[in-house]
Design the sequence.
């Protein structure tokens, strides 16, 4: 349910989902409110008056009883429950904000939209549980146990597939059936026309059927515990891939894997991270380990190889050949995952050495492989992968961006988790920032989307120039010479979790500009390869493990993507995790994934002479050739 | 090539295969020659004179140079190489033999005939090896390694199946392909429309593709090493199933399996026997362990359960339910077989608790499941299983015979291996035996077929009466009171391997009569169940792990089978091993086995009120109702 929120005296309005945070709504409406604690209610600066409508607010000691009676709330602690009229008192203004154009609604479309995509697919998890009540055998009907199960599945659940069972299951089958008085729950792994019984439990446990969907990222591993019956996410966790200690990008990982025992070490590190994440998911949700029926994993080709213990050696060397791009269901124990013996795992198929299962998963989640529209899918991560196409054809390329978008290699960078600064506004006059963190708690660092926001705002407010250099002449205590050159202070030590100033340094900006240039160049080459330009593209999906509130305007401001109209854009958040999630819920999607991987044509950028030219031209804000960015140009001219 | 052998002065002739042993030919021709050493050339009694033709004889010190010049040979050491005329000198006669009817040729049809059956099937082993020379990857053709293998298999070998690979194979795939310069041999396991790469070796090893076919018998385990390319048996071994120490028949094994750790022990015992047999096969043939691509096993339902570690508990108790009767390909290591990681095993499907994969294998080997003729298949072992039917329908039953037919539970019983007395003639006048052993070596004991032969001969020569009781009034040193009652001495201590008299005791005869009565009763019930009698049966296959030279006339004489015409009979020897052998050579046969197992109707004898009546009536020689055996009656009247 959507609600309209009007802010006075600005008279700006925005439409948001019920339950949205009022401070975020204010940011979306480009209304300026003081906020320095990241949104956790401690600074008490974001006081607003509710003139009409209902908000639900968390208790705070920052407001007096009298203020509360007058209608004051802290915006950061308020959830929108109806249409609202909100007044911002003068004391809550950080200073005068530059006026902006109104942004289209979709700009805060969150990453939570994957469930809607699923509706167009058959909901038939590859691993299902069936509670069956069998007719016990008698002399006149004494077929073997397995056949009796098969007959009951066919009769009661219409299951037509040939059913067999793992030896490990056969070993306890007879006992369980009889102990449970022929009332058992059978867990079936279905693929093609075959089905395999992977577990039999006494009684009715059909309701307890969970999958863990995992995005095996180079920098970050994200995992979700999914209730396969209810089609809901029970909990979600992420952490840095422990392999980071062996190298920041896939190239350095591959170099490491070539050392003595390197591959074994890398495998055990990534498996270790996954095991910890699963343990957290389980302990947090109260689900039993034994009720996890399967894992569905999506990772780039190199991550998938390392996860399974396959050497990536020949991916690194020309002609860049993986061992395989297609993976069967495997017992998760077989590659070290700390689950029960009978838990199976499936890795999303990859396309080529540098376009992996994470992209295939994301493409599936976006729906573009079934769309008639010319669609661009961009995954912004340590590798930037770009896919162009529709239901008929798909072409993909990959460019190494480095870990900046995931907060890696950045001084105060962090993953998009609690405390990460993900949204920033900088006052054009006094250079004071307004920040919002994930989870609205004290700021702990800055994540990818925060970094993009920061750079865009620093550029708009002229703190940095087109080359990304900080202007030392600006008169603000926030701009100063740091340990490694010039830096801008986003949050002071007293406001931050670690008691340290949180800064964006010039070197961080350099990293980010290189990363965005690589992606911009990749997109350009891909579009040229099929002779289209951005105006022909009808739909754009942006995926990435940065925060949920990445704003299109900011993305465009720094020249990360070629210019396009805002209406075409959807953020899919972590597309890989979204694809793995919906894959765990639909056999059909896993089958389609194979077809998508087959169909996708891979364009090798290292073989493309134009790539380096385009990359170098993009090492500016937004680009050496500003005319490629007429909207940005207009905005800059407006100032 | 066949040769005609005429014996003088008897003027009897017989047609035999080239290479047949001359003493066996004499037995077949019902010609009486002295022979007490089992045919190993030590007693020197079987001297004959070759008057025309050629024999190849092994050296002997039992003949003088002069005798050799005169044309003397020892029959037991002579291989027939041409048509022959042979004279038996008076000194080589054990006494005057009773004249017999001429037997049809098929009566010495050996168990070696399985290869001819195979000709009607597609020769397409379920595990095949392909040597491929791949085009190495280049930048313009850099598909993943697995796909490259698939493409080459499709292009060069027309392989259309979807091909995937075990994780264990994927792990070394990249290295092997490159080290071997893209020339490798791929081992494929094919089932239905899928194929799985289970091994990749450098260079061309396609010629080295071997299977081990195994009959997992209750008493005896037989194993053959088969060259899957050449379709020949390289070596063959058998041994008692080490489980015998835990009980002689399936019932006692099942009782044992219910004890603490009983199942684990039984499994490890049978696996131990199989491991030893494989080790022997390998060491004898010079084949490498690593070149064994697969195992194909056939055993009764209980043996298959014990082999795989599945509890047979509910097979024993009404309503007699196995865990499963259908088995997928499993890694042999998974149930303890001592082969390489990548060796797969397949167990023949079973029909019901007491009709197993051994019978399905035998039925396949006999060809009856494709025949228009009404066929009876009888497997005479520790369990007697009987199948009646044709290509359209099959009905089966099982009756417990005990281990007597495999030499078990018999005082001097032994398996049908070297030194086992397998053929016996007893002189009607002086009660002296003429014996032939397997391998024609010194007698060591008596096997199943020898026991049948012995009982038939003792009955014909009136040493035993209709009840199987030895006549103590006969004047011969060979008939005497032994430790456990009356007995007949087949070989004296001085002639025997162990330096002990080899005897057939009355208790042994009792065991044998009970065993044959069970089988006779089973056949009778089965025939009645479909309302036919023996005269309607057009073809009869007799399988069993007894010696190769079981003679139909003898089988009939003791009333083991209802009377029938000799022409209808074929011995298939170890039908289970034959089926496992041809199964390893033909995917089509393994598929057909599933259909046969599905199609076969099981008749539970324990539920049949007539069975016990029929059994008791059959506890006579040949039967209480002698009129059921007109041919035997005629023969007895002739005397």
Sequence:
């Amino acid at each position: 349910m959507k609600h309209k929120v009007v802010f006075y005296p600005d008279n700006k309005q925005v439409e948001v989902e019920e339950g949205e945070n009022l401070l975020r709504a204010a940011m979306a409406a480009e209304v300026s409110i003081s906020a320095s604690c990241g949104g956790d209610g401690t600074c008490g600066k974001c006081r607003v008056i509710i003139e009409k409508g209902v908000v639900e607010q968390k208790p705070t000691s920052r407001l007096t009883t009298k203020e509360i009676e007058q209608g004051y709330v802290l915006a950061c602690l308020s959830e929108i429950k109806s249409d609202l009229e909100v007044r911002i008192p003068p004391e809550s203004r950080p200073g005068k904000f530059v006026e902006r154009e109104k942004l289209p609604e979709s700009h805060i479309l969150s990453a939570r939209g994957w469930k809607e995509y699923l509706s167009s697919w058959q909901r038939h998890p590859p691993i299902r549980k069936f509670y069956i009540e069998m007719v016990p055998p008698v002399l006149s009907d004494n077929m073997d146990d397995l056949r009796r199960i098969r007959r009951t599945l066919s009769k009661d659940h219409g299951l037509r597939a040939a059913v067999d069972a793992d030896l490990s299951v056969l070993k306890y089958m007879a006992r369980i059936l009889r102990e449970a008085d022929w009332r058992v729950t059978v867990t079936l792994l279905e693929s093609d026309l075959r089905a395999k019984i992977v577990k039999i439990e006494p009684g009715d446990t059909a309701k307890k059927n969970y999958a863990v969907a995992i995005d095996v990222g180079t920098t970050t591993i994200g995992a979700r515990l999914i209730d396969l019956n209810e089609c809901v996410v029970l909990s979600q966790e992420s952490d840095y891939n422990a392999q980071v200690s062996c190298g920041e990008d896939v190239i350095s990982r591959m170099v490491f894997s070539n050392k003595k025992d390197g591959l074994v070490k890398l495998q055990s590190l990534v498996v270790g991270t996954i095991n910890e994440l699963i343990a957290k998911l389980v302990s947090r949700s109260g689900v039993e380990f034994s009720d996890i029926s399967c894992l569905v994993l999506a990772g780039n080709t190199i991550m998938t190889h390392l996860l399974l213990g396959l050497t990536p050696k020949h991916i690194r060397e020309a002609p860049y050949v993986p061992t395989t791009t297609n993976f069967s269901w495997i017992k998760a124990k077989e590659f070290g995952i700390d689950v029960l013996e009978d838990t199976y795992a499936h890795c999303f198929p990859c396309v080529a050495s540098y376009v992996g299962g994470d992209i295939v998963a994301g493409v599936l989640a976006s729906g573009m492989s079934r769309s008639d529209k010319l669609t661009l899918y961009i995954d912004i991560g340590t590798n930037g992968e770009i896919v162009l196409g529709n239901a008929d054809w798909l072409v993909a390329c990959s460019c190494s961006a480095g870990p900046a978008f995931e907060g890696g290699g950045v001084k105060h960078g962090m993953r998009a988790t609690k405390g990460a600064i993900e949204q920033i506004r900088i006052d054009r006059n006094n250079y004071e920032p307004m920040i919002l963190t994930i989870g609205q708690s004290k700021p702990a660092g800055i994540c990818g989307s925060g970094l993009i926001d920061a750079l865009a705002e620093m550029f708009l407010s002229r703190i940095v120039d087109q080359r990304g250099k900080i202007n030392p002449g600006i008169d603000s205590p926030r701009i100063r010479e740091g340990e490694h050159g010039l830096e801008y202070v986003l949050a002071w030590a007293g406001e931050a979790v670690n008691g340290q100033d949180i800064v964006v340094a010039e070197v961080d900006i350099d990293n980010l500009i290189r990363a965005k240039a690589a992606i911009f160049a990749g997109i350009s080459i891909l579009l040229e390869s099929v002779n289209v330009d951005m105006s022909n593209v009808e739909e754009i999906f942006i995926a990435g493990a940065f925060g949920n509130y990445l704003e299109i305007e900011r993305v465009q401001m720094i020249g990360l993507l070629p210019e396009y109209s805002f209406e075409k854009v959807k953020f899919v958040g972590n597309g890989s995790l979204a694809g793995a999630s919906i894959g765990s819920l639909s056999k059909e999607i896993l089958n389609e994934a194979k077809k998508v991987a087959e169909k996708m044509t891979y364009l090798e950028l290292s073989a493309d002479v134009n790539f380096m030219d385009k990359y170098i031209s993009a090492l500016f804000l937004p680009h050496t050739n500003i005319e490629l960015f007429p909207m940005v140009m207009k905005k800059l001219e407006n100032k």
Notes: DSSP finds 17 helices and 29 strands in chain A. Confidence is low (pLDDT under 50) at residues 95-113 of chain A. Residues 127-202 of chain A form a domain with the Ubiquitin-like (UB roll) fold (CATH 3.10.20.880). The first helix of chain A runs from residue 22 to 28.
